């Protein structure tokens, strides 16, 4: 488990346009990450199908956090730091860079990708990674000035898609 560099519990919850506290995302993020300053997630090794669901749930709970080049914690993430962080919360060690994540074994075609797999893109000479959510969406830390979000597999992303990487055996 990794120590989070700041105590999120000391922060006030974000507010929506009407001034109310943003609901379930703040609660889930606080429960998963703030718990004693660690990424605390427990799972049973025999329950692999459930692990994919937990990875997707954690992935989606991080939506809205900022992009930060070289970032790998809740202060901000780059694409590979985001993927690395999510898997690390479940005790799964991955390489830290997008290129190394993308070159891991167990590559699968788009049609064989499953929720929780790593999606790999090659844009010009740069590698980019995210987490597969469904045949229509993936989550990623896009670029400077933007936030982690779910992205549709539109024509741009389909054009640059290389493969998915299967990390979880099932």
Protein described:
With 170 residues, this protein is of the alpha+beta class. The protein has one domain: endopeptidase fold (from Nostoc punctiforme). It is built from five helices and eight strands, in the order ααββααβββββαβ. Strands 3-8-4-5-6-7 form a six-stranded antiparallel β-sheet. A two-stranded antiparallel sheet has the order 1-2. Strand 4 and strand 5 form a beta hairpin. The radius of gyration is 16 Å and the shape is globular. The protein starts with 23 loop residues before the first helix and ends in a 5-residue tail after the last strand.
CATH A-level architecture: Alpha-Beta Complex
In total, how many domains does the architecture comprise? Answer: 1
Arithmetic mean of pLDDT? 81
The profile of the biggest β sheet is: 6 strands, antiparallel
Task: Give the total of beta strands.
Answer: 8
Beta content:
15-25%
Ends: how far apart?
23 Å
Class computed from helices, strands and strand pairing: alpha+beta
Give the overall form.
globular
Spans where pLDDT lies below 50 across 5 or more residues = 1-37
Count of helical regions? 5
Question: What is the compact description of this entry?
Answer:
The chain is α+β, with helices and mostly antiparallel strands and 170 residues long. Helices cover 27% and strands 19% of the residues.
């Amino acid at each position: 488990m990794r120590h989070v560099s700041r105590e999120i519990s000391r922060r006030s919850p974000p507010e929506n346009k009407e001034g109310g506290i943003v609901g379930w995302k703040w609660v889930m993020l606080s429960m998963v990450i703030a718990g004693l300053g660690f990424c605390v997630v427990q799972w049973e090794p025999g329950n692999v199908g459930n692990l994919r669901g937990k990875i997707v749930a954690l992935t989606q709970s991080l939506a809205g956090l900022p992009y930060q080049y070289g970032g790998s914690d809740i202060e901000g993430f780059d694409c590979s730091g985001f993927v690395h962080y999510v898997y690390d919360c479940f005790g799964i060690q991955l390489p830290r860079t997008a290129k190394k994540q993308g070159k891991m074994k167990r590559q699968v075609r788009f049609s064989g990708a499953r929720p929780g797999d790593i999606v790999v893109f090659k844009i010009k000479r740069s590698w980019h990674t995210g987490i597969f959510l469904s045949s229509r969406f993936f989550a990623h830390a896009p670029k400077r000035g933007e936030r982690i979000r779910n992205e549709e597999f539109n024509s741009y992303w389909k054009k640059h898609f290389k493969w998915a990487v299967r990390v979880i055996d099932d």
